[in-house]
Amino acid sequence: MSTETAPLGDAATGRMTISAIAASIGVSVPSVSKVLNGRSDVAPATRLKIERALQEHNYQRNARQTGTSAAPLIELVFHELDSAWSIEIIRGVEQAARRNGLGVVLSDLGGSHTPDQRWMDEVISRRPHGIILVLSMLSAEQRRQLDTRSIPYVVLDTNGETTVGAPAVGSNNWNGGLSATRHLISLGHRRVAVISGPGDVLCSRARVDGYRAAHAEAGLEPMEDAIRWGNFTVDGGYRHGLELLTRANRPTAIFAGSDMQALGVLRAAREQGIDVPRDLSVVGYDDLPLAAWVGPSLTTVNQPLLEMADTAARMLLGIARGTDPNPRSIELATQLVVRESTGPAPA
Questions:
Q1: Rounded to whole angstroms, how far apart are CA atoms 138 and 165?
Q2: Which of 87, 114, 176, 267 could cysteine-pair with 334, CB 3.0–4.6 Å?
Q3: pLDDT tens for residues 258-310?
Q4: Total Cβ atoms within 10 A of residue 314
């Protein structure tokens, strides 16, 4: 009797097959197929067993194996879809998608920075051309699931170091915070506060680091209790702005980590009878179209959102065509745009 065992894979191609995967872990071929296609009717323990086997054998699906090709769609995923900032990202991705004959599907994670398994199953069943995650991330297990199914992904404006290794596009947030604060210091302001975004988001921390660096460069210490962690919204800017502007030793300048937060600061200043820029200078971040139309027009840091979105989409499409991105991480330049909301420090 022969003691030889059958090879785990297709002898002609050398590729692992789903039947070999199923045999290696004692499950049915339909169960493996269901997991690969994002079907939810597989027991969690069985699903985990199959996912681990797919990863262990470095299984990667391709169109020739399935008889299908990627859907002509880009999945654009936001942790929260609620501002003019999001619209600029959508515009950039949509323009790139249209040039390549693709559509765009939007997902809102409801404030979470990581999608759940239900979302993953839906995406796997749609089999899109690729995924762009905005201020969001994938767990290591989710990245493995997408890699197994040859669904590429790119991170846009990464929310933290957990996405290291993933293809990414962002901007130089540290330099943005530095240039905004340098501008205010050059105008004679010595009581400069900052209202950044959430403290657990990388771009928020980088902008605050730039704020600190500008003070150190000028040989200054930031004013006491000057750093506030907001949420990038008008309401966040208003609440923190009101707290800062009702202090006995209030700041003469506020660097807001987004244009939307800057609008909230402007409202808080109006309610307190504080004139901008005579009594208070305000700098925003992003340079959204509305920044030039508010009164006074907003000095802000231009973050090239359309270019970032277009670059992320082009990187994604390159990966989908089999091109390894080089470099894997792209950081675009920011630039200070001076308008009416900043002026000399009050005497």
A1: 11
A2: 176
A3: 999 999 999 999 999 999 999 999 999 999 999 999 999 999 999 999 999 99
A4: 16
Site of tokens 């999945």? 75
Residues spanned by the domain of 83 = 70-171+306-332
Pairwise pLDDT comparison (68 vs 126), residue with the higher score:
126
Q: Which of 102, 134, 98, 119 is nearest to 309 (CA)?
A: 134
How far, in Å, CA of 91 to CA of 88, rounded? 5
Residue 83 sits in a domain of what CATH number?
Answer: 3.40.50.2300
Residue 113 in any domain: the answer is yes
Return the closest-CA partner of residue 223 out of 232, 233, 231, 215: 215
CA angle 239, 243, 247 (to 5 degrees): 165
Residue 2 has pLDDT above 60, yes or no: no
Please tell me the total count of domains within the chain.
Answer: 3
Say how far apart CA 149 and CA 201 lie, in whole Å.
29
Radius of gyration of the CA atoms of the chain, in A? 25
Token pair for residue 53?
């086997």
Q: What are the pLDDT digits (tens) for 226-268? A: 999 999 999 999 999 999 999 999 999 999 999 999 999 999 9
Among 264, 283, 303, residue at a domain's last position: 303
